[in-house]
C-alpha cells in the first residue's frame, strides 16, 4: 500500500480519501450547495446571485505539509508561503456593497438550516462531530510518525538538513523557524527542506506508512467504513440536488 504523491502540487492521495466525508471533494460540494441556498434567500431580498460566478473546484488545501515541505517547485517560488489564492472556492462579497453584506448573515443562517433539512444534516463535514474518518486520519498520522520506520525517515531528513548547516528544531525535525523570519534565508531553507524530504525518500516513506496504517484501520473498522462510504454517496447526491436546483 503506497500513497500517490504529486510532487509539483505537493498533494497526497491516501486510501481513506475515497470514502471520507473529510475530503476536498465533499467540502467543495457542501460550500457550493450552501451558497446556492444563500443566493435563493438573497435574490428574494433584491440582491444578485453570486454562486454561478465562483470556481467550485475541490479545494486541495495547497501543499500537504503534515510531514514538512516537499514540493521543490513550490518552495523555489514561494519559500515557506503557500501560493496566493490556492484552489479554494472563493466568494468575494466585498464588491457587492454594505447593504448586501448587512443582509448576508441572516440569509446564511437560513441557508444552513435549509441545508440541514435537505441533507443528512449531522453528516455535513463542517457541522458534525469527529467521525471514524477523522479518527483514522489522526491515528494513522500519529502512528506513521511514532513508528520505527517513520522515526528513521525523519532522521534521514534531519541529517540531510544538518549536513547543509541548517539548525533543526528537535521537536519537529524541521528547520528552525528563525530562518523564516528573514527573507534572505526563507526561500533557501524551504527549498532545502523540500529537497531533503524528496532526496532521502522521507516524505514518500512517511506518507506510505500513513497509507498502510489507514488501510489497516479501515480493515479493523470495516462495517463503519462501509457505512461511511454510503453516507458520503448519499450526502453528495443530496448536495448535488441542491446545486442543480432540484
Please, could you describe this protein's structure?
α5 packs across α6. This protein has eight helices and two strands, in the order ββαααααααα. It is an all-alpha fold and 246 residues long. The two termini are 40 Å apart. The chain has a two-stranded antiparallel sheet.
Topology summary:
Elements: E1 4-6, E2 11-13, H1 24-44, H2 72-78, H3 98-118, H4 132-146, H5 148-163, H6 183-199, H7 202-220, H8 222-243
Antiparallel strand pairs: 1-2
Helix content: 55-70%
Total of helices: 8
| Gap from first CA to last CA | 40 Å
Strand order of the largest sheet: 1-2
Main pleated-sheet profile:
2 strands, antiparallel
Shape: flat
Low-confidence stretches: none
Strand content: under 5%
Mean pLDDT across the residues is: 90
Helix/strand/pairing category: mainly alpha
Instruction: Give the radius of gyration.
Output: 21 Å
Task: Give the H and E element order.
Answer: EEHHHHHHHH
- What is the number of strand segments? 2
What is the structure about, briefly put?
The chain is mostly helical and 246 residues long. It has 8 helices and 2 strands. The chain has a two-stranded antiparallel sheet with strand order 1-2.
Characteristic terms for this protein:
246 residues, mainly alpha
Amino acid at each position: 500500500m503506497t500513497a500517490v504523491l504529486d510532487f509539483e502540487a505537493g498533494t497526497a492521495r491516501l486510501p481513506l480519501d475515497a470514502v471520507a466525508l473529510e475530503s476536498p471533494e465533499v467540502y467543495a460540494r457542501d460550500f457550493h450547495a450552501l451558497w446556492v441556498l444563500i443566493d435563493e434567500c438573497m435574490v428574494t431580498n433584491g440582491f444578485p446571485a453570486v454562486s454561478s460566478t465562483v470556481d467550485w473546484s475541490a479545494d486541495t488545501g495547497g501543499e500537504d505539509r503534515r510531514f514538512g515541505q516537499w514540493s521543490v517547485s513550490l518552495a523555489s517560488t514561494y519559500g515557506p508561503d503557500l501560493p496566493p489564492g490556492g484552489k479554494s472556492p472563493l466568494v468575494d462579497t466585498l464588491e457587492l456593497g454594505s447593504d448586501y453584506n448587512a443582509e448576508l448573515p441572516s440569509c446564511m443562517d437560513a441557508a444552513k438550516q435549509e441545508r440541514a433539512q435537505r441533507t443528512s444534516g449531522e453528516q455535513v463535514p463542517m457541522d458534525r462531530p469527529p467521525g471514524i474518518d477523522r479518527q483514522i486520519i489522526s491515528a494513522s498520522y500519529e502512528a506513521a510518525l511514532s513508528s520505527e520506520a517513520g522515526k528513521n525517515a525523519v532522521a534521514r531528513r534531519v541529517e540531510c538538513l544538518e549536513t547543509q548547516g541548517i539548525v533543526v528544531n528537535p521537536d519537529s525535525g524541521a528547520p528552525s523557524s528563525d530562518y523564516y523570519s528573514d527573507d534572505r534565508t526563507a526561500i533557501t531553507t524551504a527549498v532545502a527542506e523540500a529537497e531533503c524530504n524528496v532526496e532521502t525518500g522521507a516524505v514518500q516513506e512517511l506518507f506510505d506508512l500513513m497509507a498502510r496504517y489507514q488501510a489497516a484501520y479501515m480493515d479493523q473498522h470495516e462495517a463503519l467504513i462501509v457505512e461511511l462510504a454510503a453516507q458520503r454517496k448519499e450526502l453528495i447526491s443530496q448536495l448535488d440536488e441542491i446545486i442543480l436546483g432540484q
